[in-house]
Amino acid sequence: MDALIAKLKTQIIEQLNLEGVSPEDISPDDSLFGEGLGLDSIDALELIVLLEKNYGLKIENPAEGKKIFATIRSIAEYITAHGKA
Amino acid sequence: MKAYIRGIGQISPQQTFAGDFLDNVVEYNTNMLFCIDPVYKEFINPLQLRRMSRTLRMGVTAAKICLLDSGIEMPDAVITGTGFGCIEDTEKFLLAMINNNEQQLTPTAFMQSTHNTISGQVAIMLKCKEYNSTYVNRGFSFETALLDSMMLIEEGNAHKVLLGGFDENSINLHVTTERLGHWKKEKINSLQLLENKTAGTISGEGATFFMLTDKEDENNYALLKGLSTLYKPESEVQVEQHVADFLKRNNLSASDIDLVVYGLNGDVRTDGVYYHLRDKLFAETAGAYFKHLCGDYYTSSAFALWLSANVIKKQDVPEVVRLGKAPLGAVKNILIVNHYRDINYSFMLVSQC
Fold it and tell me: Of B47, B51, B104, which is closest to A53 when you measure between CB atoms?
């Protein structure tokens, strides 16, 4: 799980072009949206594509997406649960 | 039609963003010029910045510098002109489509690839809900935006117009257009652009914004008195006649012009018309040129307008832009003559306020 979390941090920083943010700056339990990392709806689309492209996972239910993308850890857990990490 | 230039902001291959008027000229040994970037974080919120492509950063920053320079916080209109728009973002999402077999496309590059991204972003940044338009007319892009701005002011529909011209260079664009023979095959020193009597020129880029107003003010740079365009002239004589008519319409003759800014780009195939005008109409008039500083691109006439407005305001013609040795006194009237690839000809008249 820790390796997957570290990998996800790097991928998210790269995909979302989070200039000046390093993996150490992001706690796995920080909120990604709102007051945490401050991501927005466009970033959510980028994350959906990231998951599909790198892990073969499609998120089609918006309600499900909100839970999955809450934190880095929740994304990692979803990937692990679906066995495609 | 007339409009005053109140403020200017420019990002270019020269250090023009910090109020430098060619005091520290940068020379290049390449046929492909790119802008010198300011520290964008000083102008744009980092959260917004991370999603912006290079040209968007250039455009938004140039607009911000212009607003600060003008002292005007809210324009009545935002109007831009661009030949290629945000070409790097276009390349990015097209490449992603190819590489991913048209699947898993991300939205950012696509939504920011449109030509009106910069005028839209500036409007969002300012919360400006007024008239907003972007013109994409190849070598007339900036001129059309300028024409619209001047008409808005002339008709009283706007008193303060934020006008921009921008285009970005990219390696893909350069290589593609190189195949069409646009650029010099040899790498040259940019400051010796006119000395290489070969085909082609150097590619460039820039983002230039002007605040145009209808109000006289001691802080104005210059008065923009006239604009004219000519599409695919048949001969140099036709261009000469067009210039004479343009001056006449503005109650001027060639002898009233103190400085002619030529769009010379070192391409032996298309520079002849400038020398023709110089010989026939402006033999005694001081000349200047600018494409050795910014390269050639669709909206490079915006760089010429930046140069002319500064010359008028500062009453200084930097040595690096001087063409020939004709004597030069006070500069009250400047004529800009520019063409893009012998197709889109434009003429602007810039005068002292």
Answer: B104
Residue A85 has pLDDT above 70, yes or no: no
DSSP B32-54: B--PPP--GGGTS-HHHHTT--H
CA–CA gap between residue B162 and residue B164 (Å, rounded)? 7
CATH of B223-351, one of 3.40.50.300, 3.40.640.10, 3.40.50.12280, 3.40.47.10: 3.40.47.10
Collect all residues with Cβ–Cβ distance below 8 Å to B187 and sequence separation of at least 6.
B29, B30, B31
Span between the terminal Cα atoms of chain B, in Å? 14
Alpha carbon of A18: minimum distance to chain B alpha carbons (Å) = 6
Compute the distance between CA of residue A32 and CA of residue A44 in angstroms, rounded to an integer: 10
Taking each helix axis from N to C terminus, what angle separates A2-15 and A41-55, rounded to the nearest 10 degrees?
A: 130
Over residues B7-43, the pLDDT tens digits come to 999 999 999 998 889 999 999 999 999 999 999 999 9
Strands B333-340 and B344-351: antiparallel
| pLDDT < 70 positions in chain B | none
CA distances from B121 to A5, B51, B77, B278 (A): 34, 12, 13, 41
Question: In this complex, which of A18, A49, A53 lies closest to B50 when CB atoms are compared?
Answer: A18
Count of residues in chain A: 85
Cα Dmax for chain B:
63
ipTM computed for the complex: 0.76
Q: Between residues 9 and 68 of chain A, which touch chain B (CB distance below 8 Å)?
A: 15-20, 38, 42, 45-46, 49, 52-53
